[in-house]
Amino acid sequence: MSARLLERDTVRRVAAVLAEHGLTDRVVPVAETARTAVEAAAALRVPVGAIVKSLVFAAGDGLLLACVAGDRLVDTDILARVMHLSQPLARVSAERVKAETGFSIGGVAPVGHLRRLPVILDPSLDRFPDIYAAAGHPHCVFRTSLAELARLTHGHMGNDFAVDPLD
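-> structure tokens emitted (167 positions)
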């Protein structure tokens, strides 16, 4: 099964972006589903915070990708202010996520989208030397670092938009 997963178009798009940056053999299949941050962390035996959640938001007609630590939540009001948006942010339907990024929810990668989206990164991901992001399928991930993810996505850091769920 794992070899077939790596041949899926969505996974190959992610692997191609990584290869363009000299990062080969980074995409790995996982036996257990990595559809959620908790599931991915359990499958990889890493802290939940080391998992990158790739969340798509809408502001009017535009889209934004937020890459957030698995143990954090996005405060959309703060994120809208950080991004200097005049309109509130809203979650995007699964259908629109698939149409705009080419990925299904549970496998949305931070790279390899059908069209480039503005990307904002959660600086708290820097707590971990290795972080893991979806690679285009719920059973595939890739290892990276926050600095590397910033280069791959052309994203920028956005302070204070990702909050601890207990705050």
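The chain has one domain: 2-162.
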